[in-house]
C-alpha cells in the first residue's frame, strides 16, 4: 500500500514481498538453529581431546602414532582446536551486527504499523527515530 497525499493505492508486489519476507525468516530460523547446534558442539569439543586418524595421512596404511609426548601442549596448539576457537570468536564478533539488523527491521516495521494505525510512531522506539541499532538493539 502506498500513500499519496489523500489517496491510498495498493502495491502489486505487496503479497510477493510478504512471501519473500516469510522465506527470509524461515532461512534465518534454520540458520540460527544450525549455529546453536555448532555452539553446543564447540562447547563439547573444548573439553575433549582432538581426534586422531587411525591411519597415517601419508597413505602408507601404517597405524597412527598414539599419545603425544606432551599432551597439554599438543592439545593447546592443536590447529583444529584453534580453528574452532577462531570461528567461535568470529561468530561472537559478527552476530551482534546480525541481531542489530534484525531488530532494526523489526523496529522499523513496528513504527510503520503504528503510524498506519494512527499512533505516534516515535513512541515505538527508545529515543524517537534516532536509534543506535548496533549498541541499542543488540545490547541485551
Question: Could you walk me through the main structural features you see in this protein, from its secondary elements to its overall organization?
Answer:
This protein is mainly alpha-helical and 140 residues long. Helix content is 59%, strand content 4%. It contains four helices and two strands. Strands 1-2 form a two-stranded antiparallel sheet. Helix 1 (14-47) packs antiparallel against helix 3. It is elongated, with a radius of gyration of 25 Å.
The proportion of residues forming helix, as a percent range, comes to: 55-70%
Say how many strands there are: 2
List low-pLDDT spans.
127-140
Number of helical segments with 4 or more residues: 4
Topology summary:
Layout: E1 2-4, E2 7-9, H1 14-47, H2 71-76, H3 79-116, H4 133-137
Antiparallel strand pairs: 1-2
Helix pairs in contact: 1-3
Give a nutshell description of this structure:
The chain has four helices and two strands, in the order ββαααα.
Provide keyphrases for this structure.
140 residues; mainly alpha; two-stranded antiparallel ribbon; 2 strands
Amino acid at each position: 500500500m502506498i500513500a499519496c497525499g489523500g489517496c491510498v493505492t495498493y502495491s502489486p508486489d505487496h503479497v510477493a514481498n510478504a512471501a519473500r519476507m516469510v522465506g527470509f525468516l524461515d532461512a534465518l530460523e534454520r540458520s540460527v538453529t544450525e549455529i546453536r547446534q555448532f555452539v553446543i558442539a564447540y562447547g563439547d569439543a573444548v573439553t575433549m581431546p582432538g581426534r586422531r586418524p587411525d591411519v597415517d595421512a601419508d597413505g602408507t596404511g601404517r597405524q597412527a602414532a598414539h599419545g603425544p609426548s606432551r599432551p597439554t601442549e599438543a592439545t593447546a596448539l592443536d590447529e583444529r582446536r584453534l580453528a574452532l576457537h577462531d570461528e567461535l570468536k568470529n561468530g561472537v564478533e559478527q552476530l551482534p551486527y546480525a541481531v542489530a539488523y534484525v531488530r532494526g527491521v523489526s523496529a522499523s516495521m513496528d513504527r510503520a504499523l503504528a503510524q498506519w494505525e494512527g499512533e505516534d510512531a516515535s513512541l515505538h522506539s527508545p529515543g524517537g527515530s534516532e536509534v543506535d541499532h548496533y549498541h541499542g538493539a543488540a545490547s541485551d
